[in-house]
Amino acid sequence: MNIAMIIYLLGSLMEVEAALMLFPAAIGLGYGEKSAYAFLVIAAAEALLGFLIIRKKPRKNTFFAREGFVTTALSWILLSAVGALPFYVTRQIPMYLDALFETVSGFTTTGASILNNVEALDKCMLFWRSFSHWIGGMGVLVFMMAILPLSGAGGQKLFLLRAESPGPSVDKLSPKIRITALWLYGIYVVLTILCFIFQLIGGMDAFSAICLSFGAAGTGGFGVLNSSFASYSPFCKWSCTVFMLLFGINFNVYYLLIMRRFKDAFKMEEVRWYLIIYFFAVFTILLNLYRYSHLFTEADVVDAFFSVSSIMTTTGYATKDFNLWPNYSRIILVIIMFSGACAGSTGGGIKISRLIILVKSVGKELKRMLQPRTVKHVFLDNKDVDHATIMNTLAYIVIYLMIFIISLLLVATDGYDTTTSFSAVAATFNNIGPGLNIVGPTGNYASFTWLSKIVLIFDMLAGRLEIYPLIFLMMPGSWKKVSLTRSSK
Amino acid sequence: MNIIIVGCGKVGSALAEQLCRENHNITIVDTDREALDSLVSSLDVQPVYGNGTTYRVLKEAGVDQADLLIAVTGYDERNMLSCLVARKASKKCEVIARVRDPEYNEDSDFLKGELGLSMVINPEMAAAQNIFRLLRMPSALDVDIFENSRVNMLRFRVGNDSPLHGHNMVEVAAMAKGNMLVCIQERGKEAVIPSGSTTLFSGDIISVMIPFDQAGPVMKKLKLNQRPATNCIIGGGSATAQYLAGMLLASGVQVKIIDRNRQKCEELANHFPSAQIVCGDCTNKLLLSEEGLEDTDAFVCLTDQDEVNIMLSLYATSISDAKVIAKISRINFEEVVDKLNMGSVIYPKNITAENIVRYVRAMGNAKGNNVETLYRLADGKVEAMEFVVQEGSPVIGIPLMDLKLKRGLLVCSILRNGRNIIPTGHDTLEAGDTIVIITTVLGIRDLSDVLAAR
Question: Using one digit for the tens of pLDDT, what is the confidence trace for B108-137?
């Protein structure tokens, strides 16, 4: 384990976060809020500390998969721990655990809140919450790779990119990882700006438009009003629906489109299934609503399109309290919470491509049981999926279920009803935000005990980083100088 | 530059590593996923899985955006096919193929002219050429030639009885009457460019710059063996051995080749009537001494097994004064090998990669980058390169002692009007000079890069 290198990278991360904190500080100063100074002081302290750390360059440059995982996990924990300080020191959120919950929820693009009254926060605090979605959406380490010329061989960057970017197999867009990171952020920035412009056209005020565009881009879900997205114009809702869907698509598609490789772009099986599932969910919900509600209006159509887009991309904005919908619709929403968005997007969840690989390899296995001599491969986008990726996907699903069950068990000790406990874990682990019942769109997570909050914080981080980094962080084996596994007798 | 490397083997990986260090965009194609994965985990390159001779895979690798394709799979035919496909797929993509079969090698002009290959590289041939050079200058561990500047760079170990032992650079320069310049001093793992007060001790390995015509007298003065080898024993009848035997015989050196395989020996005997072919095991001590290892001028170990080559050359250095050269194709422990006292070592994969890197830099040359020749020395820690000083360059006319050069950089030869100058602090650079620079600052591409930032 190259601890010196990990510390060095954490030091650079602190510099980056300190720089990012200047944005909310500027907003706060613009609105004449005193809490802006909290950002300035914390940013200055963090920058100083980071500077002291990166002054000493590590001697050894070795950096492998385990360093990559551990660095990623520690980076996100550090990022959240420091990011929570402004809320805490200004007493806008009086408990540190709550502030941490809110910040983790921000960076992991979950959007689950412990605040009863969002509107009571200062503007700069609201901005910081939404900005953290935007930073966490594409990943802060990817950002670091795009802007900082990290020293050393390229391998270490790839391990970081792999550990931070969602999806079963992460590929570079171009030979140089820095260029890849720049492309990803370029696409991300342009889409965010477009989203912002559309919200402005829809009549939203500039501050809300910025915050909500950040939330949509990172598929986060923190709003600036207690009513989330309900009070905005239909145009805003429609355009936000589309943009959330766009941010849930694998960013490789945009790259291929820009490179004019249209054939490759439209070949993406994952995106096809993503849209099929989306429209299926919307239409069955519409039918269901039409049948059970007495007054079926145009607003219901908007709500259905918006809510499915919001939940499936794991954003978590709400135009309507879908908790009041008939049971079938609620079940559909819970199911698409798990499917999540595409790999390589800013969304969370299990990811469509994992599900495709899973279904296909199960199909292959069934066929093999009937005809044991058959040799068959699993294909995705007409490309052979290699065995290691399949095994990795299966292992991911198993570990996903295990963590889900353990979390559910721990959260259940709070004594809430099954729907609340289940949807609370599902909504945080899949980085959505609102669940059902108490944690539904009009509720929040404030009433959970500290134990549940810690569990949910872990779930949010595990969901965003796709579990492995956090697991490896806690395994003593990855901290040993020489990693050896004990032979089991 | 966008470069595609087809083949992720020994040479492919070595190339990827060097070209990556020079900040090119590398895409590497292979059908071996494991090889790709392990390379990608250490280098910033784009892997593409698939057969690099097919249009589909090359297109996926971005052949239409590529400036250069280098085909270095283990098969000549695939390499050539891959190059042909790339040539047809993209107008601007230059191609380099590794072609090692001697029969194809004879066609290399045709391949270049008619099939549009920019460069055909044959690792065995390149290795043989290197060995041949060493045998002409037996006291050197390495010989690098700067053709345009008409200087050699010789690398040798300072012996116990060497007149250099215990003298500093100023004294050394006086000793050689200004016809020699010590460029690199290696001691243990360190490689430094010496200053005037640096003192040499026995055991140091130094690289010196000597003009072609002064090589004899200077080496005599340093009490180094300057007589080229007149007879040579080659252990193993590999392809490299055959190329080498051809070159040696053509220059009048007696050659003896020892190989275990009867059939191989028959072939060799057929091919080289004037050489002596011995059928026997060259790891047999008795056989070696019977064939005259103790008294031979040179012994070259070219069997297919690296381990055997290393053992043989260790043994040979221990019992004879012959110039000993070993070929190491596969083993990756250069640091350890360098510590052994076993004469010169030749790494064909590095030679191949170095030749290609040189070509790539020359390609950049046409785009405003003016390195003429490049060698990587001392385990890649030092680079030696040749420049032509262009009109209007900021280095012109200032005495070298006043020129603010980067640290770890030395101008070590100037060729002006056909006359070679080993420079001192008072010399200046003029437009049209061909100069050689030694530097520990890697990746210099242009003469203006040599100046320290103001």
Answer: 788 888 888 888 888 888 899 889 988 888
pLDDT tens, position by position, B381-394: 788 888 788 787 77
Amino acid A483: pLDDT: 53
Q: Is A158 close to B26, i.e. CB distance below 8 A?
A: no
Chain A contact for B56 (CB, 8 A cutoff): no
Closest chain A residue to B41, measured at CA: A155
Superfamily of structural domain B231-346: NAD(P)-binding Rossmann-like Domain (3.40.50.720)
Please report which residue ranges of A248-326 form alpha helices under DSSP H: 251-258, 262-267, 269-292, 298-312
Mean pLDDT, residues B366-376 = 64
Of B25, B41, B42, the CB nearest to A175: B25
SS (H, E, C) B203-258: CCEEEEEEEHHHHHHHHHHCCCCCCCCCEEEEECCCHHHHHHHHHHHHCCCEEEEE
- Does residue A175 sit at the B interface (CB-CB below 8 Å)? yes
Task: Output Rg (C-alpha) for chain A, integer angstroms.
Answer: 22
Chain A residues inside the 8 Å CB shell of B20 = 154
Which residues of chain A have a CB within 8 Å of the CB of B45? 154, 175
Contacts of B44 in chain A (CB under 8 A): 153-155, 157-158, 175-178
Provide the 3-class DSSP secondary structure of residue B369.
Answer: coil
Cβ contact B382:B412 at 8 Å: no
Q: How far apart are CA B52 and CA B95, in angstroms?
A: 13
Break chain B into its structural domains and give their ranges.
Answer: 2-121, 128-221, 231-346, 362-450
Q: In the prediction, which pLDDT does A162 show?
A: 78
Is A154–B43 a contact, with Cβ atoms under 8 angstroms apart?
A: yes
Q: Do domains B128-221 and B362-450 have the same CATH topology?
A: yes
- Which range (A136-150, A157-171, B405-419) has the least confidence? A157-171
| Residue A10 touches partner B, C-beta closer than 8 Å | no
Count residue pairs from A and B with Cβ separation < 8 A.
36
Q: How far is B307 from chain A (nearest CA, A)?
A: 28
Summarize chain A as % helix, strand, coil (round to 5).
Answer: 65, 0, 35
Tell me the one-letter amino acid at A9.
L
Q: Does A176 touch chain B (CB under 8 A)?
A: yes
B1 close to B25: Cβ distance less than 8 angstroms: yes
Residues of B in contact with A177 (CB under 8 A): 44
Q: Per-residue pLDDT tens for B151-190? A: 888 888 887 778 888 888 888 878 777 778 888 888 877 8
Q: Does B35 touch chain A (CB under 8 A)?
A: no
Residue A472, min C-alpha distance to chain B (Å): 18
Residue A4 at interface with chain B, using a CB cutoff of 8 Å: no
Residues A348/A109, Cβ–Cβ less than 8 Å: yes
The CATH code of the domain at B2-121 is 3.40.50.720
pLDDT in the model for residue A457: 95
Could you give the angle at the alpha carbon of A377 between the alpha carbons of A374 and A380, nearest 5°? 150
User: Between A269-292 and A327-339, two packed helices, what is the crossing angle to 10 degrees?
Assistant: 170
CB contacts of A159 in chain B (<8 Å) are 41
pTM of structure:
0.82
- β-sheet bridge partners, residue B28: B5, B47
Q: How confident is the model at residue B367 (pLDDT cuts 50, 70, 90)?
A: low
Assigned token pair, A168: 């079963």
CATH topology of domain B362-450: Alpha-Beta Plaits (3.30.70)
CB-based contact A164:A465 (threshold 8 Å): yes
Select B128-221's CATH number: 1.10.10.10, 3.40.50.720, 3.30.70.1450, 3.30.420.40.
3.30.70.1450
